[in-house]
Amino acid sequence: MSDSGDLQVTHVALLPSAGMGHLTPFLRLAALLTAHNVHVTFITPSPTVSLAESQSLSHLFTTFPQITQKHLHLLPLDQPSANSEDPFYYHFELIRRSSHLLPPLLSSLCPPLSAIITDMSLVSTVTPLTDSLGLPNYIFFTSSAKMLTIYVSFHTMLGPNHEIEDHTKVSGLEQIPKAWIPPPLLQGGNNLLKTFFIENGKKMTESSGILVNTYESIERETLAALNEGKVLRKLPSVIAIGPLAPCTFEESQQLAWLDDQLTGSVLYVSFGSRTAMSRDQIRELGDGLVRSGCRFLWAVKDKKVDVEDDEKLIEVLGQGLLERVKENGLAVKNWLNQEEILSHPAIGGFLSHCGWNSLTEALWNGVRILAWPQHGDQKINADLVERIGLGTWDKSWGWGEGEMLVKAQVIAERVREIMGNKLLRLQTDHIREEARMAVGDGGSSTKRLYALIETWKRVQ
Ligand code: UDP
Ligand code: UDP
Question: What is the ipTM of this complex?
């Protein structure tokens, strides 16, 4: 039966960072906690970088009126030079520089907070503030447990000139090829991503716990190494709570074209919310998809930030390619509800950059992946895709970031291979089952989440 703590409201604040890759798991976590009777205050750094973020936030608050919204109004930076960096990383920095606005906001909340859950990119600035308030601060790491091992050890891998040493060895785990490390981390000198990794990575030890959107059966060894102190001594508990289920509040769309396709026949092609390919690569890709002879649904993205992506499809693809695409596919140049697409019976494969959310959505729906990592954590994720049998990765394609032009013929071959691979179908069915078991009744992630909520009840 319920103990006296159950009578009180457990109140937790969530503080996400910039970009859909960081926001989406926070939205899902907010919905999950709400379903478990935790009162959630969702802090929204404003303004957002992309339209996709502001729209997703408004869906959240419309669907869950019981969630409290608080704005963190971002202050402009006095050093505009930082603006030459990636717009999303620049925004991380804006949030970090505005974080002194948090303490009055947090202490004004009623009932008082049991904990705050902070995005991984904000650890080093938020931790001293929550410490001064005596507020438990949990970090939500929005990528894989494997990426977390790099995050917490990166500062130990650097030589005297702040350059990464030849060996990218995370203690307790096998060597990670240098070619898989996010390229900005390998550059000499400083850049925002590198600074974030160093500063936040060091401070992770001071948090109350680290939540990761992953689960035992896909990252058992890595989670064990982290929790047994093999990666870093004194790391707080790493709590696998995933895969976070997609939420029904994510807007529904009509895609009559997809409804008309045969079961499992369509390859969905998308590189996430913030990856724009070069025009040349977009056209090679389109040519490759047409040549593959497979049916495909292709989300074309020409600019990193959606509000700037205003050229028409015909301008990006050219008249000739646009006509050929229509022979066996559909190309669109707008935001698609990816979760709805991946759960559609017509979808049989996913050509993906392997953003961590895309990967978890694919396994949730048992959709096989043809991996084409573009930047950031995506090669580490693509490696996991191969290891767990979720799909294939042609390493010779390199990074998408202009490293090389992958030709249409090669793309067509890989697409045909993945769509014709029957073994993968069996494996992905199994992966889907395990993913759902982890967050089902008595599942490993469900148990961890319950234990966490109990801990919060005790601090009230
Ligand atoms: N997404 C979507 N529609 C799009 C592009 C992306 O719904 O047209 C969603 C996708 O389902 C995922 C998130 O945006 O939940 C992107 O996160 P991910 O980690 O996959 O990659 P990122 O965009 O951060 O590179
Ligand atoms: N990242 C990180 N800490 C930061 C900023 C970024 O660990 O402070 C990671 C991020 O999750 C991913 C990689 O660096 O592993 C690329 O960054 P980002 O997530 O912004 O790119 P995205 O996944 O959205 O494409």
Answer: 0.85
